[in-house]
Structure formats: C-alpha cells, structure tokens
Amino acid sequence: MRSFIEVQFPISKLSKESYKERKSNYSQTLTGLGKWWGRKPLILVRATILGLLLPATDDPQRDREIFLKLLMMDEEGLWLRKTKAISLKEMWERLTAKERQEWFAEEGKLKAQITKDDREALQKLVFSKLSYDEKLVYCDRPEQMENLSESAWQAINDHLGTSATNLSEFVQQLGVKRFGHIPRVGDAFCGGGSIPFEAARIGCEAYGSDLNPVAALLTWAALNIVGGGEEVAEQVRTAQKSVYEAVDRQIIEWGIEHNHLGWRADAYLYCVGTVCPECGWKVPLAPSWVIGEKTKCVAKLVPVAIESEESGYFQMDIKSGVSDTEMEAAKKAGTVKDSKLSCPHCHQETPITMIRGDRKSADKSSAYGLRMWKNDDLVPRAEDVLQERLYCIRWVETYIDEKGKEKTRRHYRAPDTEDLQREARVLELLKERFRDWQDRGYIPSRKIEGGYNTDQPIRERGWTHWHHLFNPRQLLMNGTFSETIERLSENNTDYISCLLNVGRCADWNSRLARWIADSTKENGAQTFSNQALNTLFNYYTRSLTLLKTSFLVDLSASDVKGDNQTITSDSRQRESCVDLWITDPPYADAINYHELSEFFLAWYEQHIKKLFPDWYTDSKRALAITGKDSHFRESMSECYRNLANNMPEDGMQVVMFTHQDASVWADLALILWASGLRVTAAWCIATETDSALKAGNYVQGTVLLILRKQTSDETAFLDEIYPKVELEVKRQLDEMLRLEDKEEPNFGDTDYQLAAYAAALRVLTQYQNIEDIDIQYELSKTRKKGDKSPIVEIIDNAVKIACDYLVPASFDSFIWKSLTPEERFYLKGLDIESHGEYRSGAYQELARGFGLKDYKFCLETSKANENRLKTATEFANKNLGDLGFGSSLTRTALYAIREVVATEDAQKGKMLLRSEIKDYWNQRKLIIEILKYLGTMEYKIPHWQQDAKAAMLLAGAVDNDNV
After folding, report:
1. What is the pTM of this model?
2. Helices in 222-368 by DSSP H: which ranges?
3. For the chain, domain boundaries
4. pLDDT (0 to 100) of residue 529
C-alpha cells in the first residue's frame, strides 16, 4: 500500500508554513530550550509523519483535501487559525466599489448599523480574497491550535474509515490499521529534538537517540519539559525565578554591578590590546570605535605619552550625542583593518599574524606563536602579546519622574578607578571559588580539543580550555547560576531546565559575543550567531539584568501524548525497532556538531553524569560522521543499514537532506543503495529563512527522500540508466513547475537542481545492482581531485538535463535548444537575476549544469551576494568575436543593443546585425526571439531598463526588415 507522501505532497503550502514558523524566531516551540543547529520546522515533521501514515487512495484529489484539513491548511482551517483582525484600510482596498457601498459609510468608517456579526462576516469576506501568503499574516501556526472542527473530523473519518475526534486518536488509529499498533517513530540523529517531540505530541511512540549528549539533553527536555504540559511549565517558571532571584541577591551583596550613584550596569565593553611593533605604543584593538548609532556614542582614543619610555598608551574617552562628523570619524578610526593592526600613533600597519608570531615550522606546517594558556589562567599574563581591557560600561539609572512614575535611562561611561576596583573584586571572588567550582562542574574544566572550528580560539588567542572563552565576570556569573541551581532544584525537571538556561547564558555571555552598535539595537549578539567560534577584538559582557531574558525563559507548553525514550547512542549500533525512521543526518562537514557542541558540553558534563547515569558525557569525536571521504560514506552506510534492519518489512524512512554538491549527492546514493534502501519519492520544501549571516552559497530547500526497503533483484546497465534519469528529472520538474504556476512557492533555481539530484537517486536505487559499478569499492574508494565516479556522472547529467529543461519564461523551447551552452547560461542567468538571485553559488551551479568551466567574463561583479551579469552597455565591445560566447548570436545582439543605446537609432543596430551575422536572414527569427527576451528585462531588472527598451526597439526593426 502506497502512502500519501509517495504520491503527492503539498510542497507549496508546506514551504510557506515552514517559512512562517522559522520567521517566528524565539517564539518557536523548541528554540527556547537552547542552541542547536538546523532544527527542522515542526510543521514539516508533522506533515511528514501524517504523509507516511495516510494511505494513498484511488481518489488523489480527495486525499489532498483531507491531508490539508488535517494540517489546517484548507480554507476552513485557515479561518479557524485567524487570530488577527484585518484593518479597515486593508478591507477598503480589497473590496469592490459595490462592496464598499454596502459596508462603508466612507473610507475608514463602517456604516453605523453594522453589527458584531456583520463585522465577522466582513472579515471573512476580505480574508477569502487574500492569497495564501497574505492569509498567513493573520493566522496562528497549526501547532498552536487545539483541535480541528467537528465537521473536519467528520470528513476525515468518512474518507479513511476512522472514528477520531483529535489528532492523537487519529494517528493511533492509522497506526493500528497499518502496523497493528500505535505507530513508532524514531530519529537516530535527533539533534534539537524536533522529530521525536512532534511525533510524540501527535500521538506516536517516539524514540530519539544521538551520538552527542548535548543533543540528547535537548531532546529529553523537548519531550519532558516543553512536552510536560502547562503544569510542568509553571513549575519550571517558578524554579527559574527562584534561582534568578537568589543569584540577584548574591550579586547585589558582592557589590560588583552598582556604582556609588546607585546605578546598575547592564553591559560591559571590552577590547583586546597589544603593543605596536613599529613604535612601541600600547594600542587598543577594535574595527570601529562606534558604540551606539542611536545614542551617537563613540570611544575616542586619547594619546598619553610616557616620555621616559619613549612610548605611550591610549586612554578611552566615551562621548554620547556627538556630531555626524564625529560618528563617521569613529567608524574610520578602527585600529584593526583587513586583519592588520593600524596604529593610530605611527600610522603603520602590521599583520595580526605577525603580532601573534605565527610562522611556518621546518616541516612547513603552521606553528602558533602565542603562549598557550594554562588551566589557572583567567586573564592574560603581563608578558602576553595580547592583553584585554574594559573600556566602557553602560549604566542604567532608575529615577522617579515629575508624575511620580519610576523610569530608567542609560548612560555610557568610561570605567573609573572604582569600576576597575570592582573588576579586581570580581577576579578575586572567582579565584576564591575557582578550583572548587571546577571540581563540582559549576564552571568548565574541559580542555579544547583541536579541530576545524576549535583550532581557531587556540591559534588566535592561545586559549586551551573552554573556560578561557569567558572572562572572570562571565565565569563568576554563570558559576553562581550553576551553584544555585544545584542547591535549589527540587527535581530533575527543574534542574535540567535551569541547566539549559546556563547554556543559553553562556551563548549570550562569552568573549565571542559581538557588540552591535546599529541604530535599532545597541546590544549584543550571541556567540553562535553563525556556525563558528570566531574570536573578536572587542566584545561585550552582560550583567545579570541583561541576562534575565536568557535565564528566565517562558517556554511553550504542549501535552505530549505518546510514550517516548531518549538515549545517547551511536546510530551504527542496534536501536529500538520502529515503524518509521525520520532522520536529518550530518551533511558532510556542513556543520561540525561534535566540535561546536563541546562549548555547551563543557558546562553540562558533570551535571549530566548525576542526572543521567546511563548516558556518557563524551562528544565522541572519533565516532562522529564527518568529511566527504570514504569514512563518511562507510559510516553513513552502516547507520542506514542498521536502521533498515531495525524496521519492519512494511516500514518506511524519510531522509531530510540539504546540499548542493553533486559528489555529496552521489555519496548519498551509494549510502542508501548499500544500506538496502530505495527512494520511492522526493519532495523539495523551502525551510531556510533569509539571513545575512548565511550569505553565500546556500540553498533555501530541504529535500525529503522517501525510502522503503530494497526488494528488487533487478540489474540495470548504465546505458539504460541515463534515459530513465532524464524522464524522471523532467517529471519531477514538471510537478514543481505546475505547483509554482498555481501557488507561487519560493523555489530558487538551486532548489530545482536539488530536485534533479533527488530524481536521479530515485532511478538509481530502484535496482539491486548496476552493471560496472562495484558499490563496496565506490564506498571505500579514496577519491583524488577531479575523479568522477559513474554515480557522479549520472547526477551531473541530471543537473544538465534540468538546466536545459528549465527554459526561461517567454522563450521558445525549440529555439532555446539551438543556442550554445554559453548563450543559455547568460540568458538563464538573467532569468534567475530577475528573481532577485545574486548568490555566487547559483551561478556556479548554473555554469556546471551547462558544462561551462569559465563564466566570469559574463559577470559585472562577483562580490558575495552581489553577483550579476553584464548588461549590453556594460559589455561594450569586450570579448566580441572571441571563440564561444564572443562569436554567438546573443553576444552580437548585445553589441547591437549597445549601438542603439549610443545612437538612439534602432536602424543602426539593425544594420550592424546585418553586417556581422553571415546568415542574417535565416537567423532572423532567432535574433528576434533573443531581443524580445532581453526586452522583457525592462520591468524585471532595474539596471536593464535602458538596454531593454533598446532591445525591444531593435526587435521591432529586425521583425519589419525586408530585402
């Protein structure tokens, strides 16, 4: 029996709903528990599970209607989800003239006789006119709704022969129909816990495991804290408040955050300092000395000479409300530019690597120049090359205004003598507790193990232990939290909730936390605002009051219905037998979870030993599935072979995968094939939100590969595979294009290429064997640069098919096929540019799809996220007549357009085409097609406006040409 998800899947609506959930930021259900990388949207997990459980009947249209009802994505469900009112202005704009007369007395004012019920009817009328995207603005997410309507359940039960009154009952009844019991869902790479949590929430028995103990802890918390319902949520809130208030009392007693005026600090700004090797002056380091754009606050460097030493240092003068000229000067006065020290005294530049003393050793390997810190080091030693100083404090003054109301205002100040004494007091308090707190696990004692991400703090700062990533004030604060949690927690749930909040505080309060000076925030970012451990020249520290939002987290409350289990486990080892495995595996070093998560494990490890005696507290780096080599392929194959062995014959799997490297997709094909699994369907869902931090080569889509056990004993030959892949790629793209025309999903061109990869996998894994391919050899083979396996060639070919098949809108497909690869690259490049696509990765993938090794000659700029093609005018006469693109019809047409722009005479452009194109009369139809296509860019790409108008004029002149 085929499942719904193997036949169809509403990818457009799911993309929109996933995007809405992702854009909710910290109001997402599980993000409040703590940092994890790449949690999949809960709505996507819910839809996947239901899609696996629902049978595909002989009425696909009705199947789709029922599926959308279950997810509350139908018209009735969206109306039930609507919680925000549509404004009078919006309603006026959406109504026809006749409808306005019926409802409104005038614009912005309803008729006096309109009742409450009438208003509801009007809201419903206008709501029905909105697109799906527009409706979502007024709606809660499906997971925030308690239940479907009675009429919806009636329709669902009638169609599927169930008798459910809620989602949990429905899921369990489907499980009994399919497997004879409540469905068991497992995730062997559970990460942040999205899959086990959502499975248990909708009534499945859920199993979650991960090699990483931090991931397992987050999953346990998702199931037992967020999933514990309102009673547990309230209990946790009380426990968090109790701990926070106790820490607050201690901080006040120590007197380390208040000044003599009674003001309390909320942010401390620190910077690294060093001695300029050219002049000997001590220089504070920062890329800019702007502290706040809204308050117009800057730090000014005031030179202080030490005549006896022929050197000097810089005092920091903090000024607020400065002029625009002073603000601009502060931006330019940064002492670190392009990884070089820019000395404000001697104006010489010195590479930071030289200051650190980095060098190449005799064996040509890199040698770090900085002193490596010892465990007891909490601040730099006097002889260290890189020092550290507090240069600004933001204070909060509380006062009573003239109306008797309590208010606050902020002040930026340079630290005075008393502030520096308080800093010394913080260090003294920490040293008194340091050894004991490390022994008890209140602060980290773990060494930093070298790696791709973890080498950076070692190399750039000499930090060797995880606690070196925190200054004394940060360690004292977090250590006090940890000590208080252990003392006050009455049960494991309270303990774990508060412990995870210590991790949140660490994320927001480390030496790697950036200060943001922009006009809206004047606040700090978290350590993991990207997927790295970036050392900084200036950073900020949060006071207790600024940490309040990190520690006091109002978690969402959900009632988890299904039984669940969470363990630390290697997915290559035996797991529980489940009916449906849904996994989001590591992506060939896309994120080094095993390294980055050690930042948090350093704070959790000794607590985990007490709370979960059966769990280990090692990040298991040696077992982590990493790389793009044979180790990655063989390890993943072992994992999925084990999962396949731990599911029934009628069980299914879903692998969620996001990557745009053909070799990685080829590896995935080998992995699944060797694991005894076959791809039965694939769907591409837009799951990623736009982010400047993700600038570069990334995709917006996640591909869902639907898998069953391999039952075929067929053998195929490579020459049979290619035509089958071509047919499957075209079928996949037709489905996506059909949905795009109908509902405008947010698919980029890169996502169509992902779909081509998936289509190739669907063909490849149909067979037990493919002649001439030794699967075990391919898995274990160490590939050299330039090597291409037969699988890579098949997948590369799938992308070429996709590129050729995706003809730009308004371009004749027959004529398109007659163009050269270079021409198709340029014209298709304009098409993706017209969609607002400027990422270099999109152009790289496009070039690879058309088989081009070089395309840079077409680009006007190749800056990150600003890639775009030259216009006709920008090309001028460059490359004209060269082999390839330079001698093509498209290039000649571009030159003729440039001539029309220059002379404002379409006839001169026409005559140029006549003289330059030998077979002009036979090529005329093709020339007109190219010119008309370029003319459509007038309203699509702003900088094409002038050239596009010229293209349309020239197309008309050529069209009217005669002998």
Report:
1. 0.84
2. 229-254, 324-332, 352-356
3. 248-551, 637-647+661-802, 810-959
4. 84
